[in-house]
Amino acid sequence: MGSLYQGARKRIKKLLLDIYPEEHITDDFLENLYQLIEQHLEEVTCSLNKWDETDTVLITYGNSLVDYRKDATPLQTLHGFLKEHLQHEIRNVHVLPFFPYSSDDGFSVIDYYRVDPRLGSWSDLLNLRKDFDLMADLVINHVSSQSQWFRNFLQGKSPGKDFFIEVDPSTDLSPVTRPSSTPLLTPFQTSQGEKHVWTTFSPDQVDLDFSNPRVLYEMLKVLFFYISNGIRIIRMDAIAYLWKETGTSCIHLPQ
User: Fold this and answer.
1) Cα(107)–Cα(143) distance, rounded to whole angstroms?
2) Looking at beta carbons, which pairs linking 191-197 to residues 24 or more positions away fall under 8 Å?
3) CB 118 within 8 A of CB 74
4) pTM reported for the whole predicted model
5) Could you give the CA distance from residue 164 to residue 238 in angstroms, rounded to a whole number?
6) pLDDT tens-digit profile of 155-209?
7) pLDDT at 46
8) Whole-angstrom Cα distance, residue 78 to residue 61?
């Protein structure tokens, strides 16, 4: 475990106060955040090979290759194929979302901490990491409507009851940049009645409310979990849409 020096603590606090109201950044929140970072400091400051023009990245789903003749998971089959045929040509392997999901080919994550058992396990990914630099998606803008956080939201329970964006359906949202043709707001029945919730990409992909710093904290926990499990390159999925503010395009906002 490393130690976060005082200058870094002050810089982190300043960045947070540039985004959040001061009353949201309590001493307890800051201390928990500092401790989270310190627990993973050595992992995130280790020396890494940087990208250059010689790098080749293979982008693949975890089940692009399946060998029905062997008792092997798709991730094990992928690893064996790459090691036998492409180890000298490829250094980086980007495995597209490998978590339990409900739609959008993996980009509607039910559980950030599990590997879809139909693909394999974390040990399969750690073995792949021994031969290749591993890249993965942090699906950061939204979660599946089947995720535990959103199920808690529907029931008014924590964690999750304040993790999503409720909007009055009469609000003028015409300035919002849309990446899809589905409605921006989706009605859900909750323990408090019908709520209209922000869903940028589809009704099954429910946007997280990053104006709540607790959401940021939970997603940092996910990020550090990935790093501690051998992920060395992170793609931030749909990060341009992360911050919502009515009356704006809600894309590439400074926050």
Assistant:
1) 8
2) 191/154, 191/155, 191/156, 192/156, 195/166, 196/166, 196/167, 196/168, 196/169, 197/164, 197/165, 197/166, 197/167
3) yes
4) 0.94
5) 16
6) 999 999 999 999 999 999 999 999 999 999 999 999 999 999 999 999 999 999 9
7) 61
8) 9
Whole-number CA gyration radius for the chain: 20
**Burial grade of 7 (CB within 10 A; 0-12, 13-18, 19 or more):** exposed
Cβ(197)–Cβ(206) below 8 Å:
yes
Report the alpha-carbon distance of residue 163 to residue 111 in Å, rounded.
Answer: 15
Give per-residue pLDDT as tens, 25-64. Answer: 999 999 999 999 999 888 776 655 677 888 899 999 999 9
Active site residue 67: no
Does the pLDDT of residue 151 top 60, yes or no?
yes
Q: Write the burial class of residue 173 (CB in 10 Å: 0-12 exposed, 13-18 middle, 19+ buried).
A: middle
Q: Can you give the pLDDT at residue 48?
A: 59
In the structure encoding, which two tokens stand for residue 116, read together? 């879809």
Residue 81 · residue 116 · CB < 8 Å: no
**Cβ(165)–Cβ(207) below 8 Å:** yes
Instruction: Specify whether the CB–CB gap between 185 and 165 falls below 8 A.
Output: no
- CA torsion angle 148 152 153 159 (round to 10): -90
- Cα dihedral sign, 104-110-113-119: negative
Helix (H, G, I), strand (E, B) or coil at 231: strand
Rounded percentage of the chain residues whose pLDDT exceeds 70: 97
Count of alpha carbons within 13 Å of 240, Cβ hemisphere only?
Answer: 8
- Contact 113/151 with Cβ under 8 angstroms? no
